[in-house]
Target: Thioredoxin-like fold domain-containing protein
Amino acid sequence: MSFDELYESCFRNASLVKVPHGKPAKDDASLLVTLDYVMNSSQYVVFFLTAGAKGADLGLKLDNMMKKKNEKGDKDKAQNSPARLRRFFSMKKKKKKDGSINGDSTLMSVVLVDTDYRSNTEDGGSSPQLAQPGWYVYAPQLLATKSRLLRALGFEFPPSLIVVDTASRSVVTTEGRRLLADDAMGTSFPWWPPAAADVLKGDVLKRVNGSVETVDFSTIKTTVRGLLFGAQWCPPCRQWVKQLTPVYEQMKKNGVSLEIVFCSSDRSQEAFDHFVEQMPWSAFTYDPARTLALTRVYNISGIPSLILLDQAGKVITNHGRSSLLEDPAGRYFPWKQRPLYELNEYTVCRLRDEPSLILFTEGSPDDIQFSLSVMDKVSKRLFEERMKVEERRVEEAENKTDENAEPGSGLRNSASSEECSSTGSDLPIPPQADPLQLLYTGEDPICDHILESILGLGDFELPLICIVDGLAGQGGSSGLLFLLRVKIRPRQSAASRVLSLSKHSLATLHHRTP
Model:
């Protein structure tokens, strides 16, 4: 779910500690605020997501930009302040409405979040050392809240800078780290990305009957369109092309409605031409500016990357390569989310997408049949429930009136700072706030690696159910945070056990974390 959808029930009253200018007074309660207070006193909030001490240089650059942008904003407000305008036009001051934002708002604020789960302890985490005066530090609280926050922000790896527009509560960009490197003064801040329709067009080199023709992107009418981001100078990109070529050719022979379009990050026209000759699929003509724009639209943080889009240009999956290599026959076309996955080298990347319930077995054919007998019906039932909730969510989003006519055009009405000091929310957590994907293990060695090396459960008797969270692990990227394990026996009602566990809220599971 989006940041906006979860804000009122999950994030509004998240506790933050303001970093003071100078030595603070002992037990200064004014330094403890809520995220809602910060959101309502800023036009943009930059979430600086780090792990331990990662990103010290990035923090200094961010602080320098914030000071310059806020200083400029203060000068602009002074020149165009309501008081100045009233004096000029000899107007009287109007009374402020209760709960409205006053002129003390700033252009941007920074919230520092340590993604290392150890930072939730009193003595854990070193990110506060990176905090600059005037910043806000995410205080230790439920891991469930942090996990939801990281997913809602679209976090991938630390250190990251993610910009949120406070008026719409929408994520402007997840690529703030790269954009700050290119725009240290923040001239184009908040770095709104272009609209997909404005860049997902133009000339495409398409192979037709052995020859190359130039066509417009709009003429590609396949059900699924893949955007492959890469470059000839990148060895993994060259390897991806070799891996995907036979799969793509087989799918085309089988009549699968798929077309891949290469988006080049090559450094020259010559390198682009040489690389494209090795590809059986289409390619946008060489245009670094367009590729850069596409990476911003779809939040591509590195190459190689293959995303799959539907006909409306919406992302089906960011795991395009894994989806195609796992399914060369197109059995799961168009590769939307499935009720149940086998854990292997192609699906392990999904463990970061959502908290996961994994049924570990020895992986023999009999074990796989047992896993399917346990998980199949349960996963389908849960998936149907999930799709119904998703349909209602989409319908509600479409019917929701837009309170802000322009992105970043204003601030929401807010309670006072005293009213924002509440630590709880009366709103129930939406059902889809804590999605849970289901997986079972087979013969792939990655299963043993996860069980033994990452989860440290190699000595436990199998079969075993584990619930893990790939974003709540150390550093938010290097491991899985183990939440719950349950030993099951084939003669027990294993399916009922799985269903019961899947009904746990993520918050309950995080409470049980050692």
Remarks:
- The domain at 3-182 is CATH 3.40.30.10 (Glutaredoxin).
- Residues 49 and 113 are 5 Å apart (CA to CA).
- The mean pLDDT is 84.
